[in-house]
Each structure stands twice: as structure tokens, then as C-alpha cells.
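testing teh design pipeline on a random one, pls ignore if ur not involved
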């Protein structure tokens, strides 16, 4: 609980919220339009029904740290076709596998494959196994004025315990490990549901929260986080069943190598439209091009039951497929969409886009010490093409990332 001493600080920050952006036109961080490859579905074959035996794991581990990933050989064209093939689980339990073809792909000209971070990136420190790095920098978002307003309204909860992000009229992007453990689909994956926060009722005696309009989210993303008096808004989840789930074969063990977490993403198609504004997909730019080198995401951390938790932090090391950072998070936040807000020169406005999927907390045991990271899967041009194809059903609408 905050004390009254926080109110003067809130007033000062409230004044800052309505200041105009400080970027000049020439120095604005901008989304760079680029032509992306085509990932096109080929033949589809039926597979044996899954078992749905194991519970979903809300954490991820891998024996491969950033240096290991950077040293891994770049996959060939045929490797990529194998890794980007995908399984589709339908709500009736039927499972199919689809092979893909790739056109227009040149890894040497893809900006997302030029991280530029190998020389100057800070090396990870040796730490205890923990998911809060120093001071807990998470913020619980409360009050329907914010919870039901974009961009917080795009965060959803999965019935398997993870988080997800609305990326289409009836599509949710999440982590593959939330529905598949690498060997088989987890308990609850067949009857998967997606939860949307909505108002249950409002206590008319509650203290009213300040309406900061869109300036709240815009300036929180810039680093100013206002204090808002608590409200007595009661929230609940409205659940929608998933119709089908797509998982890339790169995640599924036996087909993937030991760095399969590069493909820890999945797309859910709901049985009906959710009628909320969704967040657009974007190709992940190099971390150095992000405003303040920051990333942002909101999810449903298990230690704050029923609360939507927002955080932002500075991006650290990166590989072609993964982004490492020390954003504070707990199990339950995995699957959240990692996003950035930059200027869209073509539409002449600021635009938020999902550039990755928060995979979760990862540690690597090396010489008796534990190196810790929080890891997000970057949306590369090929992943953008694949996910967009899953959403749109055609490649024509997916050529620009």
C-alpha cells in the first residue's frame, strides 16, 4: 500500500505525462518497412492423436547460453523448411503436420539477423536462481480505466497457466511450451481456453482512479510510472475456447536440436472473434534500434493472482533468434508478447508492435555456477511470415514486416 507521501510525487509525474515527446523528427526511432520471405504451406498429413498427459511447465531450461547460440551453425535452407514445418492441433483432438516451402529468403540481407551485439553486449552475471533481479520493477495494473484500454487489453491468460497476446481478430500468440512440452501436448491443450479480463462489478463507494487517457501508457513506456490511487474494481475472466493451435516443428524435440527454444512460439485460433483491438506483428529490430533499448510486456505472473503485471527493461544480449534481458517476471508471464513502440513513417503515427514472445526464466549450469537470463524469442522475418500466414491464411498480405 502506498502512503500519502506518494501523492506529491504522483502530481509531479502527472505533469510530466502531458509533455510532448522529446524526439525530433529526424531522431525518432522508426519502424523500417522491409520485404519478408514467403513461408507457404504444402502438403498436410494426419498424425496420431496426442496423449495430453503432462502438465504444462511454466519455466524453460536449456543447456545453451548466449555464446552457445551465437556459435551454432546457421541452419540451411532445408533445415529451415524442416524447422518451420508445423503441427496443428484441433479442438476435436485431431492432429495434422504440414510441410512448408520458403521463397525469397536471403539471411545475409535480413536486418533481424544482424544484431550487432556480439562485441559490445554485457555478459551475464553469475546469480542465484531467481526471476526478480534486484529491486522488483513490475507494476500491477489496476482499475478498468487501464486494464480494458490498449495496450494492456491485448494481454490474455491461457487455461494452462501462461499468458498470451492478441495479434488478430481471433488469434493469440503465446509460447509453444504453454501447450507442448517438446514431446507431446500438455494436459488441457485440447480444451484450451483463453481468458479476457472484464469488469465484474464496481463498488460505487470506491475512490475513483485518475483517467490518464492514452498518455499513461505512452509515458510509462518511456520510463515514467505514475502512482494511481487504488480502486475497488472487481475483475473476472471471460473465457473463449481455442479452435486450433499451431506449433512449429522446430520446438518439437526429435526434430529440433538442443537450441530448440529458438522456436518457442505458438498461435491459437479462437472459436469466435474477441472484439478487442489487437497488436500488430513486427519483425524484431536489433536491440540498439529500440527506443532506449527497452522492451515491454504484460502478463499474469503467478505470484500476483488475478493481476495483470506490466514491466519494461533494457534489452541485453541477443542472437539471431533470441533476446536476453533482466525484466522481472515470475511463472505465468511466459507467452506474453514482447513489444516496442516506434514511429511509423508511412502512417505518420506512433505504433506498438509485437516483436517477440517471452519464453521465461532460463539458467545454465557451468562449472558449478548458475548463469541466469530471462529470454524472449525474436520474431525474425521467417517467423513473421509463418505467423502472419497462420493468421491471414495467405501470403499476399504478409509480404511487409
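output:
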Amino acid at each position: 500500500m502506498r502512503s500519502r507521501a506518494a501523492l506529491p510525487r504522483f502530481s509531479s509525474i502527472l505533469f510530466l505525462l502531458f509533455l510532448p515527446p522529446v524526439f525530433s523528427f529526424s531522431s525518432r526511432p522508426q519502424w523500417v518497412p522491409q520485404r519478408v520471405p514467403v513461408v507457404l504451406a504444402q502438403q498436410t498429413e494426419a498424425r496420431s492423436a496426442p496423449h495430453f498427459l503432462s502438465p504444462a511447465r511454466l519455466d524453460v531450461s536449456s543447456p545453451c547460453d548466449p555464446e552457445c547460440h551465437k556459435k551454432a551453425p546457421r541452419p540451411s535452407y532445408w533445415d529451415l523448411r524442416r524447422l518451420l514445418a508445423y503441427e496443428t492441433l484441433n479442438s476435436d483432438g485431431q492432429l495434422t503436420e504440414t510441410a512448408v516451402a520458403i521463397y525469397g529468403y536471403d539471411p545475409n540481407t535480413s536486418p533481424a539477423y544482424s544484431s550487432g551485439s556480439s562485441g559490445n553486449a554485457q555478459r551475464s552475471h553469475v546469480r542465484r536462481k531467481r526471476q526478480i533481479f534486484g529491486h522488483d520493477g513490475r507494476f500491477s495494473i489496476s482499475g478498468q480505466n487501464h486494464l480494458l484500454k490498449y495496450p494492456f487489453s491485448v494481454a490474455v491468460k491461457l487455461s494452462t497457466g501462461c499468458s498470451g497476446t492478441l495479434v488478430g481478430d481471433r488469434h493469440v500468440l503465446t509460447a509453444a511450451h504453454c501447450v507442448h512440452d517438446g514431446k507431446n501436448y500438455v494436459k488441457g491443450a485440447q480444451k484450451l481456453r483463453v481468458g479476457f479480463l472484464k469488469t465484474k462489478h464496481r463498488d460505487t463507494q470506491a475512490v475513483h482512479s485518475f483517467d490518464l487517457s492514452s498518455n499513461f501508457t505512452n509515458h510509462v513506456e518511456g520510463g515514467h510510472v505514475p502512482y494511481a490511487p487504488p480502486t475497488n474494481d472487481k475483475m473476472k475472466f471471460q473465457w473463449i475456447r481455442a479452435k486450433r493451435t499451431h506449433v512449429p516443428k522446430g520446438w518439437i524435440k526429435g526434430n529440433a536440436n538442443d537450441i530448440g527454444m529458438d522456436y518457442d512460439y505458438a498461435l491459437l485460433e479462437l472459436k469466435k472473434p474477441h472484439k478487442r483491438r489487437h497488436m500488430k506483428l513486427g519483425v524484431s529490430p536489433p536491440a540498439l534500434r529500440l527506443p532506449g533499448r527497452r522492451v515491454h510486456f504484460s502478463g499474469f505472473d503467478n505470484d500476483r493472482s488475478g493481476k495483470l503485471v506490466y514491466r519494461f527493461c533494457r534489452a541485453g544480449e541477443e542472437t539471431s533468434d533470441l533476446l536476453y534481458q533482466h525484466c522481472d517476471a515470475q511463472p505465468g508471464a511466459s507467452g506474453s508478447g514482447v513489444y516496442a513502440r516506434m514511429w511509423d513513417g508511412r502512417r505518420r503515427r506512433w505504433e506498438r508492435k509485437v516483436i517477440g514472445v517471452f519464453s521465461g526464466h532460463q539458467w545454465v549450469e557451468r562449472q558449478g555456477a548458475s548463469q541466469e537470463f530471462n529470454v524472449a524469442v525474436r520474431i525474425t522475418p521467417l517467423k513473421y511470415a509463418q505467423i502472419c500466414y497462420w493468421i491471414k491464411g495467405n501470403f499476399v498480405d504478409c509480404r511487409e514486416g
